[in-house]
C-alpha cells in the first residue's frame, strides 16, 4: 500500500514516522502525476488558502476530486478539512467532497492554540482509552454536517473528528502526538 502525503505546504513530514511505524511507505505528492502513484491520501494541516492556491495552479483539484469520489480513502487534517469541505465560510469549498460546512479560524488566532482532551466514540481508535489529547492550531469549526457524515468525536460540543465513507477529517493534529492510532484507523478504511 502506498500512502500519499500532499506535500505542497504544511505539516506533511510529521506523518512519515507514524506511517513507517505501521510498516507503511509513503510518497510525497506534489503534482497530478503523483496522485496516480498512491492508494490513499493525507491532506495535512497547514494553511488552506496556500494549499488551495497551489492545488489550483498545479491543476490538481479535478484529478484529486475524481479519485476521492472514486473511493480513494482520504484524511484531511485541519486545513485539510477546509479543503475537503462542501462549504467554507459560506462559499463553496475547493474540493467539495465532504458534506460539512466549516468556519475557518473559528476558535481564535495562533496564540489561542490549545490542547483539549476529546472523547472518541469508536473502539478501533480509542484502544480502550476514551480521552485523547487533541492539538488544535487555528482550527476550523465544523458548523453543520450532512446525513452521511458520522461524528466520531466532539470538543466543546463541536464535531472535531468526522467520517463520510472513506473520507476522514480531524480538525486537530493527531500527527503531533505520540500515538499512531489515527493512522492505523485511516489505513483500515
Ligand atoms: N487556519 C488554517 C486554515 O484555515 C488551518 C490551520 C491548521 O491546519 N492547523 O487553513
Keywords:
single chain, 189 residues, alpha/beta, Rossmann fold, binds glutamine
Q: Could you say what the CATH topology is called? A: Rossmann fold
* Tally of helical runs: 7
Give the strand tally. 13
Task: Count structural domains.
Answer: 1
Strand order of the largest sheet: 2-1-3-4-13-12-11-8-9
| Uncertain parts | none
Q: What's the CATH class, please?
A: Alpha Beta
Secondary-structure arrangement, i.e. CATH architecture: 3-Layer(aba) Sandwich
Strand content: 25-35%
Structural class: alpha/beta
Average predicted local confidence, pLDDT: 94
Ligand kinds: glutamine
* Amino-to-carboxy terminus distance: 12 Å
CATH superfamily: Class I glutamine amidotransferase (GATase) domain
Radius of gyration, taken over Cα atoms and rounded to an integer in Å: 15 Å
Residue share in helices?
10-25%
* Main β sheet profile: 9 strands, mixed
The helix-strand sequence is EHEHEHHEHEEEEHEEEEEH
GO molecular function: glutaminase activity; lyase activity
EC number: 3.5.1.2
Organism: Desulfococcus multivorans DSM 2059
Pfam families: SNO
Describe the protein's architecture and organization.
Belongs to the glutaminase PdxT/SNO family. InterPro entries: Class_I_gatase-like (IPR029062), PdxT/SNO (IPR002161), PdxT/SNO_CS (IPR021196). Its EC number is 3.5.1.2. One of its GO terms (cellular component) is glutaminase complex. L-glutamine binds at residues 46-48, 104, 137-138. There is one protein chain. The chain is an alpha/beta fold and 189 residues long. It has one domain (3-188): Class I glutamine amidotransferase (GATase) domain (Rossmann fold), CATH 3.40.50.880. 25% of the residues lie in helices and 34% in strands. The chain is built from 7 helices and 13 strands. The radius of gyration is 15 Å and the shape is globular. 42% of the residues are buried. The model has no long low-confidence stretch (mean pLDDT 94). The structure holds glutamine. Glutamine binds at residues 45-48, 78-79, 82, 104-105, 137-138, 140.
Amino acid at each position: 500500500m502506498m500512502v500519499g502525503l500532499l506535500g505542497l505546504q504544511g505539516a506533511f513530514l510529521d506523518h512519515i514516522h507514524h506511517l513507517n511505524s505501521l510498516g507503511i511507505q509513503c510518497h510525497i505528492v506534489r503534482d497530478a502525476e503523483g496522485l496516480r502513484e498512491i492508494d490513499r491520501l493525507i491532506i495535512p494541516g497547514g494553511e488552506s488558502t496556500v494549499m488551495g492556491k497551489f492545488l489550483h495552479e498545479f491543476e490538481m483539484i479535478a484529478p484529486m476530486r475524481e479519485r476521492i469520489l472514486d473511493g480513494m480513502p482520504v484524511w484531511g487534517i485541519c486545513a485539510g478539512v477546509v479543503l475537503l469541505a462542501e462549504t467554507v465560510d459560506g462559499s463553496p469549498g475547493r474540493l467539495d467532497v465532504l458534506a460539512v460546512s466549516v468556519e475557518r479560524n473559528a476558535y481564535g488566532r495562533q496564540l489561542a492554540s490549545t490542547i483539549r482532551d476529546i472523547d472518541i466514540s469508536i473502539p478501533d481508535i480509542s484502544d480502550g482509552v476514551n480521552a485523547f489529547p487533541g492539538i488544535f492550531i487555528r482550527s476550523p469549526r465544523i458548523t453543520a454536517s450532512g446525513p452521511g457524515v458520522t461524528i466520531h468525536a466532539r470538543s466543546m460540543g463541536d464535531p472535531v473528528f468526522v467520517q463520510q465513507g472513506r473520507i476522514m477529517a480531524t480538525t486537530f493534529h493527531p500527527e503531533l502526538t505520540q500515538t499512531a492510532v489515527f493512522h492505523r484507523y485511516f489505513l483500515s478504511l
